[in-house]
Design a protein that fits this description.
This protein is mainly α. About 60% of the residues lie in helices and about 5% in strands. The mean pLDDT is about 85. Its EC number is 3.4.24.-.
Length: about 180
């Protein structure tokens, strides 16, 4: 998957190499949660009982790798600072493919103008509420306060990858990033 390839390479370049047998765990989970990132162990948990299709698995892996990337590069305070959590959830919803038009159509959510941003905001709030015992108002406030900066933080993709083709382009650009800077 080009999304995962790019994130794994970016983490490696940031000094956080990921080992499949160490950093990924398949488990049965409660409710309708598909996955999670455990910052204490730097491990991505995939909920094998709630993931039914390869495309869903790819999105979950990408979403959780974005959290792992943020943990690696930004030293996120996951438990004490809800704004840090909100920022990573915004980035994960924005960059993982969670809010692509096709995914939104399957959820029976339609809209054109500003729909991507609305989806990212809503999914970030839902994710915060799923992992932290905070009020909806607290989650909404945290998301609103950091939304613009975090929505526009496109690292390591450099763009919002709306499709696998976009993700492949982003990965190619990421691989060639140093080549461009060397010529400056």
């Amino acid at each position: 998957d080009p999304y995962a390839q790019l994130l794994l390479e970016a983490m490696k370049q940031s000094g956080c190499t990921v080992f499949n047998d160490r950093h990924f765990s398949c488990e049965n989970c409660d409710g309708c949660v598909s996955g999670g990132f455990d910052s204490a162990t730097s491990q991505i948990v995939l909920c094998q009982n709630n993931i039914r299709h390869q495309s869903h698995m790819n999105r979950v892996v990408t979403h959780e790798l974005i959290h792992a990337f943020d943990h690696c590069r930004a030293h996120v305070d996951w438990f004490k600072n809800v704004k840090h959590l909100a920022c990573s959830e915004i980035r994960a919803a924005n960059l993982s493919g969670d809010c692509t038009l096709m995914n939104e159509i399957t959820r029976f959510k339609f809209g054109l103008k500003g729909h991507h941003q609305t989806c990212v905001r809503d999914r970030a709030i839902r994710s915060i509420l799923a992992v932290r015992k905070v009020s909806k108002e607290t989650a909404e406030k945290a998301v609103d306060e950091v939304f613009d900066a975090c929505f526009n933080d496109l690292e390591p993709f450099g763009r919002i990858p709306h499709s696998k083709t976009d993700a492949k382009r982003a990965y190619r650009d990421f691989q060639n990033r140093d080549r461009y800077n060397a010529n400056l």
